[in-house]
Design goal:
By secondary structure, the chain is of the alpha/beta class. It has a single domain, classed as 3-Layer(aba) Sandwich (Rossmann fold), CATH 3.40.50.300. It contains four helices and six strands.
């Protein structure tokens, strides 16, 4: 099974792309969703590493697309066949973050500053 990570800062289109891949019939998992991620003791949104490791060990599809962005994702790079980094111009990121309704991340000044760094 090929394993592909779609990653990038908040607002680059990871969630939209992973949903579209699912609609096309590909096995696709948004690791930024609850159940796949959780808040750490210091308040960061991090992947549930045991669940992600189990997912990457499966062999039930020709291609597995996963999406998300967390500092610990580097632990999983050896298990991935491809890593695709999504990006967008700063003004596009700001517009997307300020207007989206499904996720509040990026609306607070300190979060927006992190995204634009």
């Amino acid at each position: 099974m090929k394993r592909v990570l779609l990653t990038g800062m908040s607002g680059t289109g990871k969630s939209t792309l992973i949903q579209e891949l699912g609609k096309l019939g590909y096995k696709s998992i948004d690791l930024d969703e609850p159940g796949w991620s959780q808040y750490s003791a210091d308040g960061d949104w991090v992947w549930r590493e045991e669940r992600v490791a189990e997912l990457l060990a499966t062999e039930d599809a020709e291609i597995l697309f996963i999406s998300g962005c967390t500092e610990s994702q580097v632990k999983f790079y050896p298990q991935l066949d491809h890593i695709i980094l999504l990006s967008a111009p700063a003004e596009v990121l700001v517009d997307r973050l300020m207007t989206r309704t499904n996720n509040a991340y990026g609306k607070r000044p300190e979060e927006l500053a992190d995204v634009l760094r």
